[in-house]
Amino acid sequence: MKTPSWDLSIAYQDLDDPKIQQDIADVEAKLPQLSALATTEISSLAAAVALFEALNVKLYTLSTYSTCLLSVNASDTGAKKLQGVVNTLFSKLEQAMTPYEQAIVNLDEPAFCSLLDSGIDSWSFTLLRKRLLKNRQLSISEEQLITALSQDGLLAWGRLYDSITGSLKVTLAMPDGSEEAMGLSQAASILYGPDTARREPAWQAVAGAMTTHQESFAAILNAIAGSRLTEYEKRSHSEPVHFLDASLHGSCIEQATLDAMMEVTKANRQTGQKAGLLMAKLFGTEKLKPWDEQASMPPLAGGEGQTYSFDEGIAIIREAFAGVDPEMAEFVDMMVDKQLIDAAPQPNKRLGAYCTKFADSRTPLVFMTWGGSMSDVLTLAHELGHAFHNWVMRDMPIMQTKYPMTLAETASIFAENVVRDALMAKAENEQDKLSMLWEEAQSALALLVNIPVRYEFEKAFYEQRPDGEFTADQFKALMSETWRDWYGEAMDETNDMFWASKLHFSIAEVSFYNYPYLFGYLFSKGVYAQRDAKGASFYDDYKALLRDTGSMTAEEVVEKHLGMNIRQPEFWQQSIDMVSKQIDEFDVLLNKLGK
């Protein structure tokens, strides 16, 4: 079959589907009911929570639909209009719920337990987490004002980034003097493939487009950070609120855990740097070039770079998943058969890859741009890992399925490991083995070096942002400095526009969308190591772990399922040691093959 596009009809037939207006009208009609409930009675608080959940599910389904349409075509005016309506209703819903949230947060312990016993026990973990922030509350009117202003303030900056990058066109200047025009996401997808002739021109074209619009991207980052820091300052009336606190709370991890992970990673950054230098050998360069960082492994002498059709890629993933359990392979079949994957290249397609879901039907959806590389195969496996995580929780109360970013990356990176190991086991020759070890090396460079660059760049920016807005040149200088610190001898050139091209920095809904990937990478190594040790019992234990991710902190999940303390460096070191061993194997095989 051809590279697939979504069939979103499980939610709505199209933008003219009457059900869209019916769902919007239903939310609008029930909002006054929510506002009319009393805040002093346990039964009314429970009713407010239940009604909020029902309306939230409806709005999230509408929001996912509009987001999916805009991901495929950033210029879809109808989808933009729907998104605006939904965002306004989200704001009104959150404002209407604010008095009840404040009342719940301030309940004494017996009253809180009585509330949970009133039919909303599935909200236990969520509400307990909210009660931890009691001393950071503002007044009801102030909380409502922040929510109201965010739709056309903070969140609008993120939408602006998506709109700019989704509509940008770039021109590749080829070495032979010819030119090739395409959408930004199409150019970005070339960076993952084997096309040596077009890769550097594509990288230069993307960087050039970012530079052309650097003032806009600088304004976006400054505004997002400034808005957040102003809010944190206002919330510091009873205790200081650090700019990392919101991320730590949302990621369900403690500062000690983050510090231990980052300190161990920094002490072992030579592992990722070594991976980069070994990759450079295969490109025939002394140091790795920034346009080669995400590319497919170059062919050995006399060989050709391998590309994969979507059908070939999905077959590889299906077979690998079947090796864990047939149910995982059946899940892949379901995602394909129901057209829940959008991978077809489009000129106005947004950057990146993600997994989302329709909240009402619990239907997972995967988005990416297929370029035919092994990296694309692993990206698809990664997003299907997310989708599987959602799928195994589909029968649970919806509030117990809202897992944090740290634990979200566990299933996705586990899925990558499954595919790599399956391909390694099938390797018929040393080049096949080298190809899989290449993917391990590339992941090590990305997770142990590039992700920390993102974290330390963002952290340094937030530390300095109170002193004033950054210019584009300051962003470039800070990115270059952080890049050199982490990449070391692995790369001479820096990607000084990375702060603009990496969309995660401009996501308005959440800050520090970086270290959770490192957490998931290292945590999943520990989980994956249990596959052989547990044998037949592993699959059920793995699903049980995934089902706990929406009702436990990261520390509690690891303690329960792995019996380890992630606040201590030993947990992180053992995972990095596993990675180091694979990089050493890559080195040995390269030498054996004369590289």
What does the model show?
- This protein has 595 residues and is mostly helical.
- 65% of the residues lie in helices and 4% in strands.
- The strands form 2 sheets. It has a 3-stranded mixed sheet with strand order 3-5-4, sandwiched between helices. The chain has a two-stranded antiparallel ribbon with strand order 1-2.
- Strand 4 (354-358) and strand 5 (363-367) form a beta hairpin.
Quick structural summary:
The chain is mainly α and 595 residues long.
Fraction in beta strands: under 5%
* Mean pLDDT, all residues: 94
Number of strands: 5
What's the multimeric state? Answer: single chain
Shape: globular
Termini gap? 38 Å
**Helix-strand category:** mainly alpha
Count of runs of 4 or more consecutive helical residues? 25
Strand order of the largest sheet: 3-5-4
